[in-house]
Design brief:
12% of the residues lie in helices and 36% in strands. The chain has 134 residues and is mainly β. It has a single domain, classed as Tick-borne Encephalitis virus Glycoprotein, domain 1, CATH 2.60.98. A four-stranded antiparallel beta sheet has the order 1-8-7-6, with no helix packed on it. A four-stranded antiparallel beta sheet has the order 2-3-4-5, with no helix packed on it. This is Lipoprotein. Keywords: Signal.
């Protein structure tokens, strides 16, 4: 009788274990988020709207540079943490930890730059994200 090789035996034993560790892909959904808010995308996978950087030119001034608006997100999942950014000039991302799912920023929901002198440190910019698996 031929005995199975050690490699074949190790593969047979580890496959169910590894399959149990893999996170399922997220479902199609829309998530409105505020800075520092998190949402569970799938078992063991959490998306957090970490912060934003808004260097856009105020609405009532003339600027040499238009500036940028960048939103920073973190995904914490079974394979560790992953960071990505979105903005009006780059509204989609396909983080590896989401197994092919795409995250799209709803740019129509982004408020315009505020007028100079009206910005307050407590101002926030909420976002709406769409998760799609197709």
């Amino acid at each position: 009788m031929k005995l199975p090789s050690l490699a074949a035996l190790a593969a047979a034993v580890s496959m169910p274990i590894l399959a149990g560790c893999a996170a399922p892909p997220p479902q199609d959904a829309v998530y409105p988020l505020r800075p520092e808010q998190s949402v569970v995308l799938a078992r063991g996978t959490v998306l957090t709207y970490d912060s934003y950087s808004d260097s856009r030119c105020p609405a009532n001034t003339r600027c040499v540079w238009a500036g940028r608006l960048i939103f920073r997100f973190l995904i914490d999942g079974p394979n560790g943490a992953e960071e990505f950014t979105l903005g009006p000039d780059q509204p989609t991302a396909t983080p590896a930890s989401l197994h092919g799912a795409r995250i799209t920023l709803d740019t129509s929901a982004i408020p315009p730059a505020r007028a100079a002198g009206t910005l307050r440190p407590s101002d926030i910019i909420p976002v709406t994200l769409k998760i799609s698996t197709k």
